[in-house]
Amino acid sequence: MRALVVDHAAPGNLVLGEAADPTPAPNQALVRVRAISLNYGEVKFGLENAPDGTVLGWDAAGVVVQAAADGSGPAVGTPVVTLADGGAWAELRAVDTTMLSAVPATADLGAISTLPVAAGTALRALRRLGPVIGRRVLVTGATGGAGRYAVQLAARGGAHVVATATNPDHADGLRALGAHEVVRDPEELTERVFGVLDMVGGPVLVKAFAVLEGGGTLVNIGHTTGEPEVFEFGALLATDGRHDKSLTTYYLLDDTVGLDRDLGWLAREVAGGRLDPQITWRGSWDQAVEATRALLERRLHGKAVLELPA
């Protein structure tokens, strides 16, 4: 099959070449991929560290061409959204049926491909905060793919959403997604927040934790700064007279029970126009190096989608 293969001798460490067809396990469906979406983590660390010949990729949407032998999952011909730790950047991928979901027949598979890591993470990390209706929620790094989904979902949950964006030109777009306030830095806040979804890490995480109210929770999702988190003495002392501020991390592939149901719900929301995938780059998969470079150089905000020929 054709695939985007890691090749450290090629420009961008990536080449459109050949890879062996996957052999599905009994609990896996074989999916013909129609669209893939890129995530910063897989692009940044996968392309640097994976051995030559590796087929990377977490997110893909396509059509089932071989149903799971154990009878689980959708039938042949069903359009699906899929997630796995690798293998998405290829014409075919074998996926556990617990890690995929049928999507509406009329859905734009390019838009659907943006869901698993970005929207799935945003949805499940938001749940870690508990009920957010009527509460202030800060989303750092809100202009990225997961950040934009987090803003929308937090607003849908009834939160007063505060979003960070270092470029003021992005403020209007974030407000259109549901943000009530947009700031450049958490230090600008004069009122504490109940919860934080942190996509950035480093000094931004430390600043966001400082504006968390007593009893609140910060969920760290991303580490895009590449800088350490350094807490000065006193940073972990009581806030508002309370000592129960929480800091936790979240990684979607460690939390997959029921993920098929969540992916199905997210797909229906996107297909119905109630959730915006915020695609800011879309093109053929033979333009993959161009897309990955734009992502790594911070020229791409939102989601990048690569489409495969029919």
TrEMBL record:
SMART domains recorded: PKS_ER (SM00829)
Domain Enoyl reductase (ER): 9-306
Annotated GO MF terms: oxidoreductase activity
Superkingdom to which the source organism belongs: Bacteria
Pfam family, one: ADH_zinc_N
Protein's name in the database: NADPH:quinone reductase
Provenance organism: Goodfellowiella coeruleoviolacea
